[in-house]
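Researcher: Structure for this, please.
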Amino acid sequence: MIVVDSKENHSRKIARNIADEILLRQKLNKNIVLGLATGSTPIFLYTELVRLHIEEQLSFKNVITFNLDEYCGLCTENDKSYYHFMHKYLFNHIDIPSENIFIPSGQVEQLFLKDYCEGYEHQIQKLGGIDIQILGIGRSGHIGFNEPGSEIDSVTRQVKLHEITRNDASGDFDGLENTPTHAITMGMQTIMDAKKIFFMAFGESKKEITKKAFFGEITDAVPASHLQKHKHKTICIDFNIK
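Model: Predicted structure, token format:
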């Protein structure tokens, strides 16, 4: 389903859907697992979830979250880290237990990286996988940091960032020379196994790659194109790509 609407309306609708799922699980005394994204795209969504918590007393105590990715080399105190981003825009303002928050670490030593990524993946699978996954898209066609060439059966791992991705991020890092070259990302298989996906892309800069992802060939060269095969996705955009 492709809905052309404002990012504000999209975000409100997705937030309400998430809230309804949280409340349903609370009635059943069950947890819900959310897969979360970063960047400018989901900020209004997180703002709306915070509003629901404050104004409608929506509790997040039964919510478990897994973030898609993190830059390698950044500590949690670094204001460019996704750990910092998530706490700034969401976690510091809701009642989610800290032990329910999972964000890849950017400071795992290379020697232990394989075991760490396997552990992150195992934790997701142990909880039954992702119930609702929030996704954006990069101009390289990545979802998470699954850059071009990422295979459909890939799982959580370290990846080398595409030149387009690094260039787009360089403004946040005061130049390309300061921009991380690698990241840890949830894999394509992990994302595709999510029970429900909300894909969000806003602004003209995302139009061509979104069109390629959903109307082009399904290929590892555009990892987001594999979303065409997901049966329970909602595509939220503020431009017309037909």
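Researcher: Any notable elements?
Model: The mean pLDDT is 97. The CA atoms of residues 196 and 231 lie 8 Å apart.
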